[in-house]
Amino acid sequence: MQTLDFAPLYRATVGFDRIADLMDRVLSTEVAQPTYPPYNIEKTAEDAYRISIAVAGFGPDDLTVEVKDGALLVSAKRSDAPQKTYLHRGIATRAFERRFALADHVRVTGAAHENGMLHIDLVRETPEALKPRRIEIGRSSDVQGNVLTAQTLDA
Predict the structure, then answer these.
(1) Contacts of 97 (CB under 8 A, 6+ apart)
(2) Where are the domains of the chain?
(3) Measuring CA to CA, which residue among 50, 92, 58 is closest to residue 75?
(4) Pure H helices in 13-144
């Protein structure tokens, strides 16, 4: 497999290092993605999302949810491993670590453990500076020199 070196990109750009990191992470991850535990991602409102992870056999004390370096990391490890003899074991309770990359301005607002499911709520908060704004178009009499003054309007 061919590896790409993004060092020249870091030297030639300012502020785009996150894009290069994302490309590096995508290219370096394994092709086979883990399928345990199963999860859903749903859009609950215009700027709100919920990640639901099936965590049967784990209690709230066995689960860890943290945000680190622009990623949501969910991990589980059973603290008490009772020695039981199973005739059939269909519920996996093995330790896991699941990572979700978060987009810019996405914030985790809470997590809840309910009926064997871990629900993590997220919200996208777009800063005022990045929201679209309307610029009023001035008349030619408003021109001062070669600069036209722009005035922002509420949308």
Answers:
(1) 73, 74, 75
(2) 1-33, 35-80+89-127
(3) 58
(4) 17-28
pLDDT, tens digit only, all 155 positions of the chain: 566 665 665 555 555 556 666 666 666 655 566 778 899 999 999 889 999 999 988 889 899 999 988 889 999 987 766 678 888 888 878 889 998 888 888 999 999 999 999 999 999 888 888 778 888 888 876 555 544 444 444 44
Q: Identify any residues that bridge with 48 across adjacent strands, giving them in sequence order.
A: 45, 123
Separation CA 24–CA 21 (nearest Å): 5
Residue 152 near residue 82 (C-beta atoms within 8 A)? no
For residue 78, report the phi and psi dihedrals to the nearest 5 degrees: -75, 125
CATH number given to 35-80+89-127: 2.60.40.790
Contact 49, 43 (CB under 8 A): yes
* Reported pTM: 0.64
Q: Can you tell me which residue has the tokens 């030639």?
A: 12
